[in-house]
Design a protein that fits this description.
Layout: E1 21-25, H1 30-42, E2 46-50, E3 53-57, H2 64-71, H3 74-77, E4 81-85, H4 91-99, H5 104-112, H6 114-121, E5 126-135, E6 141-152, E7 155-157, H7 159-169, H8 172-187, E8 195-199, H9 208-211, H10 213-222, E9 229-234, H11 242-254, E10 258-264, H12 270-277, E11 281-284, H13 286-290, H14 295-298, E12 308-310
Parallel strand pairs: 6-8, 8-9, 9-10, 10-11
Antiparallel strand pairs: 1-3, 1-4, 2-3, 5-6, 5-12, 6-7
Helix pairs in contact: 1-2, 2-5, 5-7, 7-8, 8-10
């Protein structure tokens, strides 16, 4: 099985440190251009305009991404890209840098959440905590759900904060890979024959046959059978390209894994998504379960004596 390669986008973070020059892709919105010109003037930056591009330099240039993001509406900010560049960048290299630039908001986020860059550079800082899944009839533990954590200077960073920072910086694809591999690697010594539930974000996987190779390799190295792996997608996470999600799940199944749909009833389109995915496991949203046997909850689900429950982890 080949590797996706050390240069793959899910394996390394882009450089974090600001440079001397900031390239800003302006798009075609004149109002956005005027606002960005005003921000540059307020920061006393030297500005050179080119068609569709603004080159900024000055002592306060590293403050521009955050100041510009604050000045623009979310819709306006989504039209602007920015990247750090060498002062002498020109020609095709300039065009290539502008085309490959991240969103302005993500460049701002990388300064705000600088600690994430250090974590992503040292994957040993990540670990998983595991919530047991228990059969309600027998009381036996049948599986474990992995929850990603990180150690930052002795402080535990939780899943929500990690993915919040990753979303703000455009690095969800890197963190999601680390989460999958960490969940599997850390369970190898004790899982036995139990199931392992692993969360993933569909939009972080570009091409499953390539992006998931390291995940499969982690299972092989940990001695965990594919049949023990249950990959789950959260129903409340919007999936606009359902065909892409189905391709990922089909890939998992073709490798002998199972798939689960989490938080059913909490998100956007439970019934349609259930019909499309046909998951092996359905995890009902907590509020619906706590409402049983009330009329509202039983209108959506019917309790079964063979249900399993997830207990609070450590």
């Amino acid at each position: 099985m080949s590797d996706c390669g050390g240069a793959c986008a899910c394996r390394r973070a882009a450089p974090q440190a600001p440079g001397e020059t900031l390239l800003v892709g302006l798009g075609g919105n004149r109002n956005v251009t005027r606002l960005l010109d005003r921000v540059a003037a307020d920061l006393e930056l030297r500005a050179v305009s080119q068609p569709g591009l603004l080159r900024l330099e000055g002592d306060n240039v590293e403050r521009f991404p955050e100041a510009a993001t604050a000045a623009l509406s979310p819709t306006e900010a989504a039209e602007v890209r920015a990247t750090w560049a060498a002062p002498d960048l020109s020609g095709n290299a300039l065009v290539a840098a502008a085309l490959g630039a991240p969103l302005l908001t993500r460049l701002a986020g990388r300064r705000t959440h600088a600690e994430l860059h250090g974590l992503l550079d040292d994957e040993s800082a990540f670990y998983s905590r595991y919530q047991p899944i228990v059969d309600l009839v027998s009381g036996a533990v049948i599986g474990h759900e992995a929850l990603l954590r990180a150690d930052l200077d002795g402080r535990e960073i939780t899943l929500d904060r990690l993915f919040g920072m990753a979303e703000a910086t455009g690095r969800v694809h890197i963190l999601d890979r680390i989460g999958r591999e960490t969940a599997i690697r850390n369970a190898g010594g004790w899982l036995g024959s139990d199931l392992l539930f692993v969360n993933f974000v569909p939009t972080s996987i570009y091409r499953p046959e390539l992006c998931l190779q390291s995940t499969e390799r982690a299972a092989d190295e940990a001695g965990i059978s594919r049949s023990q792996l249950v990959f789950e997608v959260v129903e409340s996470h919007r999936v606009d390209e359902r065909g892409h999600l189905l391709a990922i799940l089909d890939h998992y199944r073709s490798r002998g894994c199972r798939v689960a749909l989490d938080d059913v009833g909490a998100g956007y389109s439970s019934l349609n998504l259930l019909a499309s995915i046909k998951p092996d496991v359905v995890k009902i949203d907590r509020e619906l379960v706590q409402g049983l046997p009330g009329d509202a909850s039983t209108a959506v689900v019917r309790p079964s004596p063979r249900w399993h429950t997830t207990l609070a982890g450590p």
